[in-house]
């Protein structure tokens, strides 16, 4: 098939799972065109992300005149369809947090996307996230573009389903993808029950070959890593507070950057944890892998999630996981078998889990590591998951 991925900002350092999915589809013989509204506004550290940026066509970089021309062509080509799409964009803008004008811009973007897809002979459009990329894919379909689908990750979509017109996007889609059964249950809340069979679970995936020879767990003082954007939903402030309660010999490395970095650094200083907590900022995939290999476990203290990629990657790398009991995480992490699950926001419980990790016998950690690795590789092979996605696309082909 000829598939177009329609995305808002691509590539982004935190969304390597999209890159892996695209490349898996290409390995299976599908031709994938990358269309994004805009590039990442920061520096791309990873060479793979820079390569993806070179292969991506950016809609907004074409300028206002090109988008206006695309909208006029769409109006002339099918006036009734254009008016209907404009009404839908206006309706979505009325309930949206970003407003009507922004949705009229989405309409112009959709006209350009529909034009590019027709010119390239695209069979199917797929978007990631139920936000503006899904809106553009839907409006493109209304303007004569290919059938579309989109993957919902959460938690953002579940925080504002009405403002995102999530039900409308699902109703007009050929199908919708959830990354976990929990995610599917949330989408079922906003879908007509008659359409529940068009909501499919397709996991985000890992490339097993990358984890073919995991570094064995080492002895010595225990080290844990937390990987992710430094934002409110990830719970790093609670993690630092928990570290202050841990009396065992344990070191925490925080990998990532974001808007809460200043607050986290200040809390580390206030709690005098500078010798026990390291904050690296953004690092490339090689550094992430090296830090994970040097650790004894991943800790994921999130308040809200979909199904975190870093959890499945850590498990595939034979590392136990300490995570919060939220969203799709319990579908992957099994207490006492592959790691620990604690209530989100419970600092004392998180501290107890880290104490348990720090004091656990080495062979217990190794058993958890092996069980987690087997579970992640069984459930999250990207080639298997991409084949599932392609099968749904083929079944929906016009």
Automatic annotation (TrEMBL):
One of its GO terms (molecular function) is glycosyltransferase activity. It holds the Pfam family Glyco_transf_4. Residues 17-210 form the Glycosyltransferase subfamily 4-like N-terminal domain. Keywords: Transferase. It comes from the Bacteria. PANTHER family: SULFOQUINOVOSYL TRANSFERASE SQD2, TEICHURONIC ACID BIOSYNTHESIS GLYCOSYLTRANSFERASE TUAC-RELATED. This is Colanic acid biosynthesis glycosyltransferase WcaL.
């Amino acid at each position: 098939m000829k598939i177009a991925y329609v995305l808002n900002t691509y590539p982004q350092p935190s969304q390597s799972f999209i890159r892996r999915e695209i490349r898996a589809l290409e390995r299976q013989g599908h031709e994938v065109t990358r269309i994004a509204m805009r590039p990442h506004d920061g520096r791309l550290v990873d060479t793979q992300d820079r390569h993806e940026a070179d292969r991506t066509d950016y809609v907004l970089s074409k300028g206002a005149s090109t988008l206006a021309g695309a909208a006029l062509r769409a109006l002339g080509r099918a006036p009734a369809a254009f008016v209907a799409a404009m009404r839908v964009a206006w309706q979505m803008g009325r309930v949206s947090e970003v407003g009507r004008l922004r949705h009229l811009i989405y309409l112009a973007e959709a006209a350009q996307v529909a034009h590019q897809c027709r010119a390239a002979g695209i069979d199917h459009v797929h978007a990631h996230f139920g936000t503006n990329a899904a809106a553009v894919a839907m409006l493109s379909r209304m303007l004569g573009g290919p059938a579309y689908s989109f993957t919902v990750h959460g938690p953002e979509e579940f925080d504002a389903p009405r403002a995102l017109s999530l039900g409308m996007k699902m109703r007009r889609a050929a199908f919708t993808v959830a990354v976990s059964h929990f995610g599917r249950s949330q989408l079922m809340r906003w879908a007509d029950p008659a359409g529940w069979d068009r909501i499919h679970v397709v996991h985000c995936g890992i490339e097993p070959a990358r984890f073919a020879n995991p570094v064995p767990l080492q002895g010595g003082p225990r080290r844990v890593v937390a990987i992710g954007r430094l934002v409110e939903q990830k719970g790093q402030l609670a993690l630092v507070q928990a570290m202050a309660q841990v009396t065992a010999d344990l070191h925490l490395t925080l990998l990532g950057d974001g808007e809460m970095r200043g607050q986290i650094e200040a809390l580390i200083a206030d709690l005098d944890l500078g010798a026990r907590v390291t904050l690296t900022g953004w690092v490339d995939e090689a550094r992430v892998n090296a830090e994970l290999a040097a650790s004894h476990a991943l800790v994921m203290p999130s308040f809200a999630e979909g199904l975190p990629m870093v959890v499945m990657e850590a498990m595939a790398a034979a590392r136990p996981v300490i995570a919060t009991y939220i969203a799709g995480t319990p579908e992957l992490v099994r207490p006492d078998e592959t790691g620990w699950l604690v209530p989100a926001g419970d600092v004392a419980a998180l501290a107890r889990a880290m104490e348990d990790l720090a004091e656990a016998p080495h062979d217990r950690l190794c058993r958890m590591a092996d069980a987690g690795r087997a579970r992640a590789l069984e459930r999250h092979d990207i080639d298997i998951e991409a084949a599932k996605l392609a099968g749904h696309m083929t079944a929906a082909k016009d």
